[in-house]
Automatic annotation (TrEMBL):
Transmembrane segments: 12-32, 268-293
Family listed: Belongs to the short-chain dehydrogenases/reductases (SDR) family.
UniProt GO cellular component terms: membrane
Record's keyword terms, sorted: Membrane, Oxidoreductase, Transmembrane, Transmembrane helix
Organism: Rotaria sordida
Tagged with keyword Transmembrane: yes
UniProt keyword RNA-binding, yes or no: no
InterPro entries recorded: NAD(P)-bd_dom_sf, SDR_fam
A molecular-function term among this protein's GO annotations: oxidoreductase activity
PANTHER family, per database record: DEHYDROGENASE/REDUCTASE SDR FAMILY MEMBER 7B (PTHR44196), DEHYDROGENASE_REDUCTASE SDR FAMILY MEMBER 7B (PTHR44196:SF1)
Stated name of the protein: Uncharacterized protein
A Pfam match: adh_short
Length: 300
């Protein structure tokens, strides 16, 4: 019996039938559909006062704390969430020199839905409406699998990268207590076969984010998806050498995020080179894209 998956000729045929239409649709969208939707016209907070960042104890989250502290004069309160109280305190002590701005720490595991809800509603009651909520905490399956069983590595990756994001955003959505939500996905979402388990979780966040953006427009809440390629954070340690070579600095990454959020950009994608590459891979038939990806990831 002919199996779609095993048959190279069918895959190539499918590619010739489907993808020209996708590409055409993409071009039409760029030229005709720009800023036409109500969710694209929502005004993102230009002078954010209160910001919540999960995964703030290192990497991109820590970079965001520093950037908003130093470059956003309106910003008064930054609330940092991650599991390790010690790491959060180190970040707090490093930056908290200005009396006008407060850094608050809330140690919590984003997978603990009850505790996240309690903390987020408590913050909302105490400080009022949140200007920007970053659902940034995430886990690299590849790194986690080095020291854990297959079962644990898979479950933790799905739990933190998907349920953790849901636990972060839903409590404040329910009380309409937030003006802008930034979900951190990844360019791995475009071509999940490059990093299948991690990529699947980030594809889910991309999809969830795009739907939230549409659904929450009626409440005037802006939702943005952040899709980084390699950024030189602790997460990249032990990653593919080519990713590390192409990695951009945390400073550069958070600067791009800051400006993209102010413009209410639907998806903030950087660095451009890896973004275009991953996007192109996603348009190729798997029988070509997979060997290209494994060639590039060779030696691992
Ligand atoms: N770096 C990259 O190249 C890259 C590329 C694409 C996408 N991303 C995405 O960007 C986000 C940040 O990545 P990063 O590179 O900054 O990673 P990182 O350096 O490994 O930092 C991850 C942060 O998340 C926190 N975290 C992990 N699990 C948590 C949990 N269960 N509950 C609460 N906090 C948790 C960690 O703190 P604790 O350990 O204290 O909990 C840490 O602060 C992630 O979503 C990642 O997938 C990164």
């Amino acid at each position: 019996m002919l199996s779609y998956d095993d048959n190279l000729r069918l895959k190539i045929l499918a590619w010739f039938i489907h993808y020209p239409f996708y590409i055409l649709w993409f071009i039409i969208k760029i030229f005709l559909n720009k800023k036409q939707n109500e969710w694209d016209n929502i005004q993102a907070p230009q002078f954010p006062r209160i910001i919540i960042i999960t995964g703030a104890s290192q990497g991109i989250g820590e970079g965001l704390v520093e950037y908003y502290l130093k470059n956003c004069s309106s910003c008064q309160i930054i609330i940092m969430i991650s599991r390790s109280k010690e790491k959060l305190e180190i970040v707090k002590n490093r930056f908290n020199s200005d009396d006008q701005k407060k850094l608050m720490i809330y140690p919590c595991d984003v997978t603990d839905s009850d505790e996240m809800k309690r903390i987020l509603l408590d913050i909302h009651r105490t400080y009022g409406q949140i200007d920007i909520l970053f659902a940034n905490a995430g886990l690299s399956y590849r790194q986690h699998a080095l020291t854990n069983t297959f079962d644990k590595a898979v479950r933790d990756t799905f739990n933190i990268n998907i349920n953790g994001v849901i636990n972060t955003v839903m409590p404040l959505i329910e009380v309409k207590g937030v003006k802008q939500i930034a979900l951190v996905s990844s360019q791995a979402a475009y071509a999940p076969f490059v990093s299948p388990i991690y990529g699947a979780t980030k594809q889910c966040i991309l999809s969830f984010g795009l739907d939230l953006r549409r659904l929450l427009a009626k409440d005037n809440i802006a939702v943005n998806i952040i899709s980084p390629g390699p950024v030189l954070t602790p997460m990249l340690v032990g990653s593919y050498p080519r990713s590390v070579e192409r990695g951009i600095s945390i400073d550069k990454a958070v600067q791009i995020i800051f400006h993209g959020l102010r413009r209410n950009q639907a998806e903030i994608v950087f660095p451009a080179f890896t973004g275009v590459f991953m996007y192109t891979l996603s348009f190729l038939p798997l029988c070509i894209a997979e060997p290209v990806a494994s060639y590039l990831m060779r030696g691992q």
